[in-house]
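re: that chain from earlier
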Amino acid sequence: MRDHDAQPVGGIARRLAHILTSRGIDLNAKVTDPVEPIPALQAAQARIPARYRAAVADHPAVAAWVREVAQAGRPGPKGAPGLAEGRSLLIVGTTGTGKTYQAYGAVRSLLIAGVRLRWKATTAADLYAELRPRPGHDGERELMDLARCPLLIIDDLGAAKNSEWTEEITMRLINRRYNAMLPTLITTNLGMADLRAHIGDRVASRLTEMTDKVILDGPDRRRTLAAERRNTAAASA
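^ sequence. v structure.
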């Protein structure tokens, strides 16, 4: 695992700078919503939570990952690249630092870049709730679908109650994606030592190899926005 903080130098951004610049790609160019509608992006908007439908991957390391994935894509119909094998991201930060925003921003940025993309998103708690055995539900089939999905977001890993069963489910899912080298976006508010204790050594070992770690810091954005709204309301009263 390689660690990357909020600085645009070092780690993944520095490694990609030489590669992408040699291909004529401006690393400083910001990804913004297109002027013309993109059908795939429009379709994805219905599946993205309302709060993140304008999200853009604006963290330097996440933006660099998007560009690397877009460039590595295999050409498909009409020349549009499809998602290829590649590195994953472990986005770490305390509550409210924008981890989920960056994850959904990465999906939207890939679609804006024209990448053909099948993706799924779940929180760790929802993942376990959905896969828990119950009559009339094929949890095994759903687990395999998540394991094979070209891009998967697992939000808040380590936040759900842990058990031998959840550890085994996590191991099976991560191990299949690790072996297939499928990009996975994982967010957590736990440090690596705490995450290892929660998900087990086998999963933590695989995450260490398959992911680049992006560390988000700063104040809780939710509290900051709430304070700004209160100040605006007070000023206009």
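Strands lie at 2-4, 74-75, 81-82, 88-93, 119-123, 151-155, 184-188, 211-216.
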